[in-house]
Task: inverse folding
């Protein structure tokens, strides 16, 4: 009998959730060109997914997750510019939605300000805000686009195909940051064959003029498969995951870690090695010069993620273990010194205040956290 | 790597042979070779009166000229729910009494279609025009099919070489949907009967629908689109020889072949351009039925079947946007070979004790097709099953039905776990011996109008090969999968109102399923796990009546409560996917003057959810169907049908497979 339709469906489902590497950063340092921070009636949002369906819930000022939901595509990421909320629906949906966070509780779906559809399969994964505009990283496309935050209209695009690796059409941009007029674009640059065997060259950082879209410079990274970028006081830090080992985890070696990029010298050096971190970095969030990184150790016998949380002082290079976190695959976000961690195994959001871990109260049946954004 | 084990030309050859030999045979002298001398009483609605209360038999008058697919037809029965993904040829499956489609055994002429992948059998490629009747076992898989599996069984029985005659069927409907079928059954010699059939179907499936452009919260970009790359065509044929031997035994040799091909159109906002699927299958079957021994107290049967299935899908990401963005033309699929020898015996040693026993072996081999790395999986099944019934007293008796199942898997090359190349499996895991069975008490006999049955059983289902050792792209293996288990209780009864014009059937069913297998995404790949645990309780009712000579009526209703009882905090307490709390079916056939018949059928079901999280709701929906048929001559029938009269097209935003809406069809059937 015909199983083909089923295969295709399964394949599509798998493909849509197929990150291959870390999910990029989820909320790095505060966006440099975001609107003025305004008082928003909610503390943040949590997008939950079971890879079949997805839902947006919000965290109130008392730190509780809402009963109400707004449905979105199962592979979506949430971003905030400290005034508005954006939902990036990933490959298979390929939309951007702007939401007024103050109206979520009272107006539900009417809180949607606009929603625009991008080209099929472009897979938007990150945004960097620039006043009334925002750059959008399209992981599976050969371009980046600049949209108006007023209506979502595309105003400019940057072609990135020339950075694609060996026959690929996309350089697989995983994270972007905007700082001092420069758009930092982090490219994974991998290729995979028809059997999903992936080959990685070293990662690449491309720097563009954020207003004109011109290429300013490119810098080859020291290691492979970068996951996150953060710009702190003009200093550029890149976290890399590196290649997977046989257990689909990463080895604790110097082939991955946190790199510090010297833009003027066009050079990137390993600041903190994977050996010190205990493996490759899945994602990184930065608050001043403190970085929290999730480390991919692999998967247990039940295929649950085995990860570790490390606190890294980017100035002193000191690495500390943060105990009590074993699954951070539901993303991380940081605000006001509080680290929010999505734990997909426990299907909870934990908050780390620097001393203690506490789980946020959530309604029964909430989908496991997949992406978190804070205001 | 591409292999072609069954070429298109071979299929066409078989099909042509079937048709030509059939036409020649028709001219021979007529001597009917038939073991079936009992006249069947068939109501105008096409459903035979039930002898076993859990069993329903549907004959061709229930679907001919009515625009019904196999899934549509089955879901008219109480307790059965259908799932469809679009028009003709799109994926279709059924669940029975809350047991998921992947646990339902689907057979053609007793040979299972469920294969190594373990998923639900796609009913779309079953052409009802090839079928004589459909046997539906809602309670459990009966002993003659092995008592293996959690759910019921559906057996499609092809046109057979029993009665002399034939027919031609032609149909045409909107979206350039057409079908043609030809059957003939005729004696070749005094002792050999031949039957052959050929059938083909096609649809452009180019219906219009509202494309929401993937933006749930933006209505401004919605537009009317036409379904594209959804064409579907299938062709099938079979030939059967039935021979009476000198010692009174019968031999049956049959060959069945089919080929189907269609576009894989994708979802509403991401229509594809070149993605398609192709399937080919062939079944060669020989059976020997003994004459009755010891005054017809014992009948023996021996059979051997060989089945081949190949399914390949292909897509090109830059045009199709299916799956992950590999910029090459990709072909994926599998070929499955099955060889099944079996022997069985049916006996009635004395009036009070009846029994049936069967021993079957099945060797199954699955291999890659398309661009996958080489892999092959083998499975050997040995199944012994039986049914024993003892009539305790005049109006009742006790019975038991059970099976023992041994299986051995073998990995024949390939990497079966992670795509990174690690954790390569060298050998398959040993599986436990599996026992399934049920005990039942049956009340009533043919002398009284009431019959009933109460049963309780424990059933097991072994994981399929591809669930254990998944090899298709994006999937990883789980060799530690356990057997799925179900404990089931059923009580059913049939009341035949004196006079024979009305019957009422009712059943209560309850199933507790443990270790059900679900495909989850873990490690960014699909992975089968024993996470499902559920409880289903329900009742179904059926009233069939012929209150007047010009009217036949069928009313059916299902009430059920399905509950996810898994350990997942997200899913626990939710309704099972695809299962409504209520569903109703009503059909009336009016026999009008001037050889006209008018049939009206309405069905309704309450809300269902497409996902375990119960987020993807599909609201309650009604479907109405009308058929006007004209029988100008004894063997001629013309029918015009309208299905989905109210043009229901709703689909949840996240399950956006557009449906064809209202469908018209004109059919002419000429018997001879």
Result:
């Amino acid at each position: 009998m015909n199983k083909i339709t089923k295969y295709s469906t399964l394949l599509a489902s798998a493909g849509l959730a197929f990150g291959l590497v870390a999910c990029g950063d989820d909320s790095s340092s505060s966006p440099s060109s975001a609107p003025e921070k305004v008082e928003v009636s909610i503390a943040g949002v949590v997008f939950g997914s079971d890879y079949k369906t997805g839902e947006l819930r919000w965290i109130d000022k008392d730190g509780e997750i809402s009963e109400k939901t707004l449905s979105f595509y199962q592979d979506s990421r949430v971003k905030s510019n400290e005034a508005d909320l954006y939902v990036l629906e990933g490959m298979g949906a390929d939309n951007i939605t702007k939401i007024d966070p103050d109206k979520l509780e009272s107006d539900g779906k009417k809180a949607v300000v606009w929603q625009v559809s991008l080209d099929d399969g472009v897979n938007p994964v990150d945004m960097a805000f620039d006043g009334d505009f925002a750059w959008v990283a399209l992981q599976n496309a050969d371009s980046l686009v600049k949209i108006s935050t007023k209506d979502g209209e595309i105003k400019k695009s940057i072609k990135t195909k020339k950075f694609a690796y060996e026959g690929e059409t996309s350089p697989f941009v995983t994270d972007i940051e905007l700082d001092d007029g420069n758009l930092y674009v982090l490219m994974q640059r991998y290729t995979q064959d028809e059997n999903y065997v992936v080959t990685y060259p070293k990662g690449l950082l491309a720097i563009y003029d954020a207003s004109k879209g011109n290429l300013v410079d490119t810098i080859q990274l020291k290691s492979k498969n970068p996951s996150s970028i953060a710009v702190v006081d003009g200093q550029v830090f890149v976290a890399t995951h590196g290649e997977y080992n046989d257990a689909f985890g990463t080895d604790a070696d110097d082939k991955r870690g946190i790199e510090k990029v010297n833009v003027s010298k066009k050079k990137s050096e390993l600041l903190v090695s994977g050996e010190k971190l205990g493996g490759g970095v899945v994602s990184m969030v930065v608050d001043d010069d403190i970085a929290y990184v999730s480390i991919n150790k692999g998967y247990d016998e039940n295929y649950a993620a085995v990860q570790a949380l490390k606190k890294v002082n980017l100035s002193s290079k000191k690495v500390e273990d943060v105990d009590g976190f074993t699954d951070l695959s539901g993303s991380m976000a940081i605000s006001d010194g509080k680290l929010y961690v999505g734990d997909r195994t426990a299907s909870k959001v934990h908050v780390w205040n620097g001393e203690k871990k506490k789980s946020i109260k959530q309604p029964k049946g909430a989908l496991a956290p997949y992406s978190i954004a804070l205001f | 790597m591409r292999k072609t084990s069954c070429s298109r030309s071979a299929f066409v050859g078989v099909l042509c042979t079937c048709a030509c030999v059939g036409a020649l045979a028709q001219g021979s002298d007529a001597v009917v070779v038939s073991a079936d001398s009992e006249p069947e009483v068939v109501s105008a609605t096409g459903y035979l009166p039930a002898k076993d209360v859990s069993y329903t038999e549907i004959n061709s008058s229930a679907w001919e000229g009515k625009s019904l697919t196999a899934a549509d037809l089955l879901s008219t029965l109480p307790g059965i729910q259908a799932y469809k993904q679009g028009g003709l040829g799109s994926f279709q499956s059924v669940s029975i009494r809350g047991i998921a489609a992947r646990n339902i055994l689907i057979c053609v002429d007793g040979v299972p279609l469920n294969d190594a992948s373990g998923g639900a059998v796609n009913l779309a490629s079953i052409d009802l025009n090839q079928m004589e009747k459909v046997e539906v076992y809602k309670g459990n898989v009966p002993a003659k099919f092995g008592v293996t599996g959690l759910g019921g069984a559906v057996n499609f029985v092809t046109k057979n070489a029993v009665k002399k005659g034939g027919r031609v069927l032609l149909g045409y409907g909107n979206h350039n949907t057409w079908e043609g079928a030809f059957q003939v059954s005729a004696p070749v010699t005094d002792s050999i009967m031949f039957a052959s059939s050929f059938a083909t179907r096609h649809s452009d499936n180019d219906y219009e629908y509202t494309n929401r452009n993937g933006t749930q919260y933006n209505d401004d970009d919605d537009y009317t689109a036409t379904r594209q790359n959804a064409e579907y065509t299938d062709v099938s044929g079979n030939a059967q020889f039935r021979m009476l031997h000198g010692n009174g035994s019968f031999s049956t040799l049959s060959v069945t072949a089919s080929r189907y091909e269609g576009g894989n159109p994708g979802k509403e906002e991401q229509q594809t351009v070149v993605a398609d699927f192709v399937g080919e299958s062939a079944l060669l079957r020989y059976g020997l039925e003994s004459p009755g021994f010891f005054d017809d107290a014992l009948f023996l049967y021996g059979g051997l079947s060989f089945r081949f299935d190949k399914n390949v899908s292909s897509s090109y990401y830059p045009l199709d946007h299916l799956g992950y963005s590999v910029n090459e033309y990709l072909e994926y699929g599998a070929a499955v070979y099955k060889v099944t020898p079996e022997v069985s015996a049916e006996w009635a040693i004395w009036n009070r004790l009846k029994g049936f026993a069967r021993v079957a072996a099945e060797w199954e081999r699955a291999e890659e097709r398309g661009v996958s790395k080489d892999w092959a999986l083998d499975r050997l099944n040995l199944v012994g099953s039986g049914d024993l019934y003892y009539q305790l007293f005049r109006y009742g008796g006790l019975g038991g039905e059970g099976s023992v199942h041994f299986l051995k898997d073998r990995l024949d090359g390939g990497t079966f776990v992670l795509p990174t190349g690690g954790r390569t499996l060298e050998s398959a895991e040993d599986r436990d011996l599996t026992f399934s069975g049920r005990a039942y008490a049956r009340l009533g006999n043919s002398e009284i109008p009431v019959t009933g049955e109460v049963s309780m059983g424990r059933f097991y289902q072994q994981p399929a090969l591809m669930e254990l050792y998944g090899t298709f792209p994006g999937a990883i293996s789980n060799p530690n999968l356990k057997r799925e288990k179900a404990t089931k209780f059923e009580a059913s009864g049939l009341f035949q109102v004196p006079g024979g014009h009305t019957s009422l059937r009712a059943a209560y069913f309850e199933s507790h399923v443990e270790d059900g297998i679900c495909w989850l995404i873990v490690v960014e790949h699909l992975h089968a796990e024993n996470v499902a645990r559920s409880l289903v309780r329900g009742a179904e009712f059926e009233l069939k009546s012929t209150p007047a000579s010009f009217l036949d009526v069928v009313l059916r209703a299902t009430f059920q409560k399905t509950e996810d009882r898994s350990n997942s905090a997200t899913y626990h307490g939710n309704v099972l996917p695809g299962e409504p709390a209520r569903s109703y079916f009503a059909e009336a056939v009016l026999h009008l003057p001037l050889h006209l018949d008018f049939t009206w059928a309405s069905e309704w079901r309450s809300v269902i959810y497409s996902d375990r999280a119960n987020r993807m709701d599909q609201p309650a929906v009604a479907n109405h169907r009308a058929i006007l048929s004209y029988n100008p001559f004894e063997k001629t029938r013309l029918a015009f049908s309208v299905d989905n009269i109210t043009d229901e097209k709703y689909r949840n935003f996240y399950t956006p497979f557009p449906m064809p809406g209202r469908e018209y069809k004109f059919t002419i059937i000429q018997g001879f």
Observations:
- The first strand of chain A starts at residue 44 and ends at 49.
- Residues 19-374 of chain A form a domain with the Methylamine Dehydrogenase; Chain H fold (CATH 2.130.10.10).
- Chain A has one domain: 19-374.
